[in-house]
Amino acid sequence: IGQLRPVAATGLRLAGIAEKLPEQIDANYSAVILNVFAKKEVFDAVGFETVESIAEKFTRCMTAEMEYELASGFCGLLINHPEAPWSAESYQRLRFLAVEHKNPQENTYNITSCDDPQNKSCQCLRDNVLNSIRGYAFRTIAETLWKCPEKVADWKIVLEHGLQDPHPSVRYAVIDALAAVSRVDKPFACKGYWKIFAVAVVAMLVV
Question: Quick check: 55 pLDDT over 70?
Answer without folding.
Answer: yes
